[in-house]
Hints:
The protein is of the alpha+beta class. Helices cover about 35% and strands about 20% of the residues.
Amino acid sequence: MCARAGRGIQVCVELDQLDRAIIRELVEDARATYAEIGQRVGLSAPAVKRRVDRLQEKGAIKGFTVRVDPAALGWTTEAYVELFCRGKTSPADIATAVARNPEVVSACTITGEADALLHIRATDMRHVEQVIERIAAEEFVVRTKSSIVLSRLVDTPLPTS
């Protein structure tokens, strides 16, 4: 498995089945103790800790966080927005511009006609429109194409296998 470490450096980490099992357990419940994880994967708590420390050091585990329901925080509307950019707009320029919008929860360069795909969360449709208007006003944006999410069918943090 390759992961991005600091400053965009990619580090490849060899993961065995136990490492993958530990990561699965942490994805499911980042608050689980090393003893609880160890019991589920067949290791002692100190062995789990050593592996987690190594996985963090190598960049395979970036941190521990909580998953929240965006709707519970008022972010009830989401959209995917394709960006079509002028000439040779760099990914860095796109990233800098869209990062100024906290409603953009992810942004990726993509293949196909569009140059980038943004995932936006907002409080309502008017809010989505305002975000798209701000992004479309960037000098490098030629046009945008939006799709509103009606319902989430699958939403997992990682593949389970």
